Every structure is written in structure tokens, then in C-alpha cells.
Amino acid sequence: PRTSIPPFHRCWHRGIPREPGAHWTEPGCQSCTCQGGRVLCDTVSCSVPCSHPLPALAGGCCPTCTGCLHEGVARADGDVFSPSDGNCTVCVCLAGNVSCLSPECPPGSCPSPSLADCCSCNPEKCNFRGRTYAHGARFSLDGDDCTTCVCQGGEVECSFTPCPMLDCPQHQRHLGPGQCCSTCRDPPAPAGCFLDDNDMEFPVGQIWSPGDPCELCICQADGSVSCQRMDCVETCPYPIRIPGQCCPDCSAGCTYMGRTFSNNETFPSELDPCLSCICLVR
């Protein structure tokens, strides 16, 4: 025959009888038990054996490892995915645990475009003459400021410092001590006038005619040339023009109808043979 349980061993909780040793969960995740007619309750203690559990199901108190919660996104067990900030990283959800794998990237520049899309390649450093330089570093060669070197992906490239174009002739260029590029010297003070068109040089104060007998030029002290045309003052109706002379000569004779006559010379007129002409210098 069944042995009846003494009433004082049962528990009454919120109008519901509980047998001695009974366990149940109250709202608010309280775990209760009936012991010797008394109800003892405590907060549910959850033991979660996974790293990325899902939140507790409706009516439950403890997270579940039947899936994964990664970066706020619920993943089903066995899902394969890439994280939002991963560069070609692949993750998998297994029993509440998330495992991620990233591609192995070689040092230096990537050997192929496919790896370059996934790898964050760190350019190689340069070992040059016993010193190490970072990628992109610029330095001079053994203290020579005229040579600039740069580290590019493990290789060092050196080049001479570019010099500006000079607008002075070669004999006026000068390379000073410690300088990389030549500079133009100040031109020496002119000792005369140099004419580039006919490669002639005149001393200061020299007067000459450049080709026109009515034009005279003089060499100035600063090396410049000053030219001026002459004005003919003496005039006469039949002067003689001497080649190479600017002004007509009225004292050497007369020019008449294309012929030249000396002073006091008499000759017949070509317009009227009955007329006689004479050249008079006045």
C-alpha cells in the first residue's frame, strides 16, 4: 500500500502544492525546490560551454549553443561567413563557437593580384650599407647631398639631384665647394664693345661706321653701343658725291647731267650747243 506523505513535508507556493524534493523554475529565472515543507529559491546559474552562444529562447533562462551570435548577427550551426571588417577572412559556426581563418600573406609586395586583394601587404624594408630603411624613406648617399636614395619594396634606388637650367654661357658657370649644381657668375666688367653680328670688338671710345656712311657709332664705357646719324649742313645745286662719304662735296667740283667737272672748268651745254657752262665753287 502507498505510504502517504505527511502534510507538513509538502510545500505550498503561490497556491500550488509541491512534493518534497521537487524542483521548478519561477518567472525571473528563479530556481526553486521544496525541502521539509519550505520553498527555497535562488537565481538560475547558467553554465555555457561555448564562446558565442545564442540568447535564451522565449521562456528560457540560459543561452544556448545550438547556434552562434557573432557581431550581433545570429548564425546557424554550420554556417560559413566573412566578418564585416575581415580582409578575406573566413569564419564558421560550430556548436556555439566561432572559428576564423585568414590567408597567409607573404612579406613584402604580394606576388599575385589574387593575394593582393586579400592580403594587407607590408612593403619590405631595405638593408643598405649596414643600415635599415623603411619603405618610402629618402636619404643621402654617405653624406653626399648631391645624391638622393629612396627605399622601394626592399630595393634602393639612387639618383643625382636635378639641377636647374642655366641661361649663362659655359665660361660664366661656377661650382662652389659643397654645392651640387653650378651657378652663374656675375659677368666681368666690359672692356669694350663686342658685336655678335660680325664678331668684332671695339675699345671704349672707338668711333666707327656700321655700313651706312651717314651713321656713326661709339663704344660706351658700360659695353653698350650708341649710334647717331650725321646731318649735312653744306649744300650746293651740283655737288659731287664721293663713294663712302656721307655728305655731298661742294668744294671738289660739279656734277652736271651725269658728268663730273672740276672747279672753273668750261663745257658746252648738252641742252643747247650754243650755250657754254662753267663750274664755279662758291
Automatic annotation (TrEMBL):
InterPro entries: vWF_C/EGF_Fibrillin (IPR052080), VWF_dom (IPR001007). The keyword Glycoprotein applies. It is found in: Secreted. Residues 9-66, 66-127, 124-185, 191-251 form the VWFC domain. Keywords: Glycoprotein, Secreted, Signal. Pfam families: VWC, VWC2L_2nd. This is VWCE protein. The keyword Glycoprotein applies. Its main location: secreted. It comes from the Eukaryota. One of its GO terms (biological process) is cellular response to virus. One of its GO terms (cellular component) is extracellular region.
